[in-house]
Automatic annotation (TrEMBL):
This is Nitronate monooxygenase domain-containing protein. Keywords: Flavoprotein, FMN, Oxidoreductase. InterPro entries: Aldolase_TIM, NMO. The keyword Protein biosynthesis does not apply. It comes from Gymnopilus dilepis.
């Protein structure tokens, strides 16, 4: 079973489903299993060291049973503001990734994405062959879209709507408004394949975006639910129990973790858990503890002292308290209730996607 678009043809894959590079969540196992299912998986360099990145790339290579000289059929995502903090470390990180011959790289959230695109082009040992490294960039504005097409000349553009879990442009438009607006601009400039990202969780949503002109869809929260992600069982169960009203945009977790330095206008979308809770294993659900009101977002919005906020966050994370720890979640989290392996989830999404497209055509 396959579904072909310009994006799947570019990468030689069966289905236009992409697992996003999520810092702290996407490693080699998650990326490789999505690729094994016919989609395309990204692991995230995030805040990692060179050693950690190399370890995850080797995990992906082992799962995909790829030889040392073979193209590694996963991508690596980079937070450009992290690269820009320490250019020497950044060069080392990028060169390490390129040595492993990934099929793609993904750049987002920086002041000078074009510099990193140029770095990859200049250091790609496979440049000029069909196996050259495909460069993805993530954008949310027409200005960046035009730069990506005309100046950076990237291979794939990811259009991210406001619904995305994790970080994004706080004032971005909703995806179903943003994508048609930007896809029209891209079509006028003969742009590359466009992927849609933000609040996507079902095959019906993927099918709808394909009918709007997307060449593929990027999913994040859905894959956080997979055992191959770095999320803990507690975090996955919290996602399964959450409804979409709990997905909120905030800088609370970045202040609590001291991960500040994002470009202006960028914040994160995660779970806002009110009362502290405990997991009732017999009934397989979280129950609120009315005696203890602990929530990082609420404390941040009340103006709690930063040192206290960080201490509570550290203690809550250590205690695996889902009301205090970080759980990124897109607005589609209410549509996500099952914990299943990434490969199974990808195959299911492809099946449902094709069924929904057939319904639209018939």
């Amino acid at each position: 079973m396959s579904l072909q678009t310009s994006f799947t043809s570019l990468l030689g894959i069966k289905t236009p489903i992409v697992a996003a590079p999520m810092a702290g969540a996407s490693g080699g196992a998650l990326a490789a299993e999505v690729t094994n299912a016919g989609g395309f998986g990204f692991l995230s360099a995030g805040y990692d060291s060179v050693d950690a990145l190399e370890r995850e790339l080797k995990v992906a290579r082992d799962i995909l049973q790829a030889g040392e000289q073979d193209t590694l059929r996963v991508g690596v995502g980079f937070l450009c503001w992290q690269l820009e903090k320490d250019p020497a470390k950044a060069d080392n990180l990028l060169l390490t990734a390129l040595e492993h011959k990934p099929q793609a790289v993904w750049f987002s959230f920086g002041e000078n994405l074009g510099h990193w695109v140029d770095f990859v082009r200049k250091n790609d040992s496979r440049a000029g062959t069909r196996d050259f490294v495909k460069v993805f960039v993530q954008i949310s504005t027409a200005q960046d879209l035009i730069l990506a097409i005309n100046t950076w000349k990237v291979d794939v553009i990811v259009i991210q709507g406001n619904e995305s879990g994790g970080h994004g442009l706080s004032n971005s438009l909703p995806l179903l408004t943003l994508f048609p607006l930007l896809s029209r601009v891209a079509a006028e400039r003969n742009g590359p394949p466009l992927l849609a990202a933000g609040g996507i969780a079902t095959g019906a949503q993927v099918a709808s975006l394909l009918t709007l002109g997307a060449s593929g869809a990027v999913l994040g929260t859905r894959f956080l639910m997979s055992p191959e992600s770095f999320y803990s069982d507690v975090q996955r169960r919290a996602l399964a129990a959450a409804d979409s009203s709990q997905s909120v945009r905030t800088m609370a977790f970045d202040h609590a973790r001291n991960t500040l330095g994002w470009p202006e206008g960028v914040d994160g979308r995660g779970l806002r858990n009110g009362m502290a809770s405990f997991y009732d294993s017999y009934h397989m659900r979280f129950l609120a503890n009315p005696l203890c009101y602990l929530a990082t977002v609420d404390d941040f919005e009340r103006g709690e002292d930063l040192a206290s906020l960080r201490e509570k966050f550290v203690q809550g994370t250590r205690a695996a308290d889902p009301s205090r720890m970080l759980i990124w979640a897109g607005s589609s989290v209410g549509l996500t209730s099952k914990i299943m392996p990434a490969k199974v989830r990808s195959e299911y999404l492809l099946h449902m996607n094709i069924l929904n497209l057939e319904c639209r055509i018939s």
